[in-house]
Amino acid sequence: MTYDNTPAFAYELDEQDPLRVFRSQFHFPKRNGKDAIYFCGNSLGLQPKVTESYIQRELDYWKEHAVEGHFTGNTPWVSYHQLSKKSLSRLTGGLEHEVVSMNNLTTNLHLLLASFYQPSGKRVKLMIEGGAFPSDHYAAESHMRRVGISPEEHLITLTPESGKTFTNEEIISAIKDQGEELALVLFPGVQYYTGQFFDMKAIAQAAHEVGSFAGFDLAHAMGNLPMTLHDDDIDFATWCSYKYVNSGPGGMSGIFVHEKHGNNPNFPKLTGWWGHDSKTRFQMDNQFVPNPGVDGWMLSNMNIISSAAHLASLSIFDKTSMEELREKSIKLTGFLEYLLLNDPITAKHIEILTPSNPEERGCQLSIFIDQNGKAIFDGLIDAGVILDWREPNVIRVAPTPLYNSFTDVWRFCGIFKQLIVKHAEK
Ligand SMILES: *Cc1c(COP(=O)(O)O)cnc(C)c1O
Description:
This protein is of the alpha/beta class. It has 14 helices and 17 strands. Helix 7 runs parallel beside helix 8 and helix 11 (322-342) runs parallel beside helix 14 (406-423). Bound molecules: pyridoxal-5'-phosphate.
């Protein structure tokens, strides 16, 4: 696609955008009396306007029916987790009995590590990505320590040979090098710092070839890119819903467990009463019989208020598709990249850390600024642009296809350039 650096061009793209109707369905924070330019959906997605009514409905039901709400009404709480399955299946490419919404991300990562990190004999190594989000790193380490395996010796933290982003080949060959010593590969779908999107299918295939499991943290992939977890033969995955899925701070996480494991009632797992076969759960006889599929991993009755916010947000995703969102996203992020790199002043002071190949990224661009990055970032915030800062000198800009416009991107680049002139062009 060819772009043009004019406001009229951005306006024209917005006019032609079939998804532009969604923008007005979100609450934008105000800055200087106007809607902020919000590029922080990779950290906390905006509040959909329908969220309030979804939560209010459950508050009212609780107020009027109390405990009877578990089994009565249009959305009985006892089976509330069923309500999100269709949408989660569309977002992940998992089958409905492979996906369930529950808990929070790090909690779920622990549950999945308890199931899928099964060291035995020589097969003890756990491979993660060297720049992994700290929570993922801590979780992995703690599972090794708990079973007496030294992370210093057996946790492999893979870093890119280029010092920047990975090539697919180097990940695959690192997996093959570990051979029969590898128990588990835990990788992100999208790397939170660089925005790199990995070839999950190829990683899982390489892991399987050496007899290892492969699981993914989809915190930055969910709602950002289409995925095909079932077809890609991914063993497990987890995500959060407060980033691109707009379900509110600390909102519901979810997990995917491939049916080849989910349908095995003897697959190891940490268990709770909500994972017990729902038909006999209330017989309370202490003989654990798992629900079929991923629902065997549930522990507790659901957080209904948080789940209501989740359903509200998913109802918006149900009106479009990840394919449509992706089509816009590629254009929107491509426009951002074009404006940044085709302006000689901006281009001179930045480096985009995110891969330039759209197949290897979602919507986020991570931008390294050569000097006075923090002053530029502070200037952006003052000008009503909300985005995030990462040490040492990086801003992450995430134009999301659901609620961002081409005009947002164009305006951002103009403000950014002025701040570069002020703080970096000395
Ligand atoms: C956002 C994020 C988390 C956050 O974990 P919570 O348990 O939801 O607080 C964890 N891992 C990754 C990769 C993330 O991007």
